[in-house]
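Entry 12.
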Amino acid sequence: AICGGIAVGTVACVAGLNGLESVLPDGWFGAWRDYTWPLPLGGIFAAAGVAHFTLADAFIAIVPPKGTWGGLWQVPAPGAEELNLSYAEYHCYWTG
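Predicted 3D structure (tokens):
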């Protein structure tokens, strides 16, 4: 159900943006996209990166335990022992 909802939402967003592009004069959609999307998206990603450190406990709690992928993909944590970090702390901090 979640995947279906994401798929339907994606199709609706793409259709909406395509419709908007088709009604605007040539070049307006591209200018709007190029000048208004980067700053908010950059801000969101920067805030998420900062939150990895300021709200570390919340992010550490959602790191899947080692071996979650059933042996198909063992995610390493090189240097975690030397830094005195748990597996979850290591992955929370490097992704932030």
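Annotation: The radius of gyration is 20 Å. The chain has a mean pLDDT of 91.
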